[in-house]
Write a sequence for this structure.
């Protein structure tokens, strides 16, 4: 950690350990995304994304060179480890102040604060039929949440 940097709220890394990171902010939301892109990149029925302010994420320069940025759609950019292929982050073009960390890369023992709990399920329309979601009382969206869809539409109209 650099001088003057706050104590990490959590740490994490990819599977092979080439990419390591810290965040000075605990996750604000935990979203389970069932979109086809998340499913195909993870090989699982969903990816859990932990949202944090981008400014609180620290990836040392010597490890950030091990990531590959990929545009998986016209609205989002993801990073994966160039060695092991772990999904690491996702950031939406209209919301560069925030970034999603693939929750499976977080060192759970390092988490400070309350236990993380899922806050929403998105892209239910693309959830695989063979995967059942427990009745957890959490809001479920066919696509993005309403507020997210509105921000996305404004951003798209400003770009055209």
């Amino acid at each position: 950690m650099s001088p003057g940097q706050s104590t990490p709220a959590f740490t994490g890394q990819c599977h092979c350990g080439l990419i390591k990171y810290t965040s000075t902010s605990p996750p604000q939301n935990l979203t389970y995304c069932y979109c086809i892109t998340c499913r195909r990149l993870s090989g699982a029925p969903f990816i859990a994304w932990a949202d944090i302010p981008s400014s609180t994420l620290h990836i040392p320069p010597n490890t950030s060179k091990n990531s590959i940025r990929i545009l998986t759609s016209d609205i989002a950019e993801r990073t994966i480890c160039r060695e092991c292929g772990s999904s690491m982050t996702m950031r939406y073009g209209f919301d560069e102040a925030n970034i999603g960390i693939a929750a499976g890369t977080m060192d759970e023992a390092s988490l400070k604060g309350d236990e993380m709990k899922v806050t929403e399920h998105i892209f239910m329309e693309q959830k695989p039929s063979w995967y059942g979601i427990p009745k957890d009382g959490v809001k479920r969206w066919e696509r993005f949440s309403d507020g997210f869809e509105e921000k996305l539409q404004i951003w798209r109209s400003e770009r055209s």
About this structure: The helical segments are 36-42, 61-64, 146-159. The longest helix spans residues 146-159. Residues 51 and 100 are 4 Å apart (CA to CA). The chain has three helices and eleven strands.
